[in-house]
Design goal:
The complex is a heterodimer of chains A (115) and B (111). Chain A is mainly β and 115 residues long. Chain A contains no helices and 13 strands. In chain B, β6 and β7 form a beta hairpin. The chains are: A mainly beta (115), B mainly beta (111).
Chain lengths: 115, 111
């Protein structure tokens, strides 16, 4: 069964700790994305990657870092520099058409809480 | 720049219709519509492409007015399962290969 997996589903972190959120896809999609969602809010783009070993900052990249060493994997690290990290984190992937983004498929999300 | 969705929230009786709008200040390549149930991931509904036709997903349809830089989602004869938050995501020449999402429209369908 093809899809996107994220782990863990729930994550609790103490202030000052770095944490890494996992995102894996077996859809053979080119692009992968990380979004942050706060209660009652829309989706804000953190980072995205169109190809292995390359990624771009989204609108709210400060305090986050990513890597794209394999096509199927795009982990997100929430660093201690992120002042308000409590949120719902969603990973997505898509095929890239010429000059257009195709459907984005979302993983089930990771809910991060800072204690 | 984030697209603007209206209305922010809608309450319907089962069987009623609703329209959700998504407007951008920029010329768009595409508009994507998603629905998210509480605590779950967004689920794709449809894409509207520049120069493309009006799309349908069951009894939900959407249009894309390129001149007005606006898309509308039409929910006909709403069902209880339509409840959720609807997001539009837009792709423009300055942000190719990524989507900028609106803040969402919350829809509640009551029996």
């Amino acid at each position: 069964d093809g899809g996107i997996t994220q782990s863990p589903k729930y994550l609790f972190r103490k202030e000052g700790q770095n944490v890494t959120l996992s995102c894996e896809q077996n859809l053979n999609h080119d692009a992968m994305y990380w979004y942050r969602q706060d209660p009652g809010q829309g989706l804000r783009l953190i980072y995205y990657s169109q190809i292995v070993n390359d990624f771009q900052k989204g609108d709210i990249a400060e305090g986050y870092s990513v890597s794209r060493e394999k096509k199927e994997s795009f982990p997100l690290t929430v660093t201690s520099a992120q002042k308000n990290p409590t949120a719902f984190y969603l990973c997505a992937s898509s095929i890239l058409r010429s000059r257009l983004t195709d459907t984005q498929y979302f993983g089930p999300g990771t809910r991060l809480t800072v204690l | 720049q984030q697209p603007v969705q209206s209305p922010q929230a809608v309450i319907l009786r089962e069987g009623e219709d609703a329209v959700i709008n998504c407007s951008s200040s920029k010329a768009l390549y595409s508009v994507h519509w998603y629905r998210q149930k509480h605590g779950e991931a967004p689920v794709f509904l449809m894409i509207l492409l520049k120069g493309g036709e009006q799309m349908r997903h069951e009894k939900i349809s959407a249009s894309f007015n390129e001149k007005k830089q606006q898309s509308s989602l039409y929910l006909t004869a709403s069902q209880l399962s339509y409840s959720g938050t609807y997001f539009c995501g837009t792709e423009d020449p300055d942000s190719s290969y990524k989507l900028i999402f609106g803040s969402g429209t919350r829809l509640l369908v009551r029996p």
